[in-house]
Amino acid sequence: MQSVNFIHMEDGTKEEYEFLHKMEAEYTTGLVGRLISMLGELENSFSGYKISRLEHSLQGATRALRAGESEEMIVAILLHDIGDGLAPYSHSEMAASILRPFVSEKLYWIVKHHGVFQMYYYSHHFGEDRNIRERFKDSPWYQDAIDFCHNYDQNCFDPDYDSESLEFFEPMMRRVMSNPHLGTPS
Ligand SMILES: [Fe+2]
Ligand SMILES: [Fe+2]
After folding, report:
1. Which ligand lies nearest to the CA atom of residue 88 in the structure?
2. Tens digit of each residue's pLDDT (9 = 90 or more) over 117-129
3. What pTM was estimated for this model as a whole?
4. Where are the domains of the chain?
């Protein structure tokens, strides 16, 4: 079978859906490669900082590596800003959604809200409440999100920091992303 015959999904047969399922599974094996390409594009993200968004992501992941954090945490940091190009108004949620099948609920939550927690470092300069993160203070992961941003995000704009390369992290990405916990898409 090269392709299915149906033009309306409601007309598809079991064999056709099995064929599509196999094609999709093959395509999914390329996920890590596509994510690495997207990370590479962060080299061309908006400027103004001393380093690119790619270098920022590598620096955060490298700091986490050297601090002895888990591979799941390191990969989450590597990908935390991957939505900058396509989701400028909701980049935290985009990264969290990509990570969700591969990381703990806690880490998913931290990445999903990291943009709000990052506001602590700058929003008061615009006359806004820097403590907006306190809306989440009842979460069991509130302090973890503060630590995530303090240790691996707000401090990762140093042009002199010696980060590992994207290639260095690829095997780690493959390990973390080799075992998705799949549920019904929501
Ligand atoms: Fe971010
Ligand atoms: Fe960031």
Report:
1. 1
2. 999 999 999 999 9
3. 0.94
4. 12-176
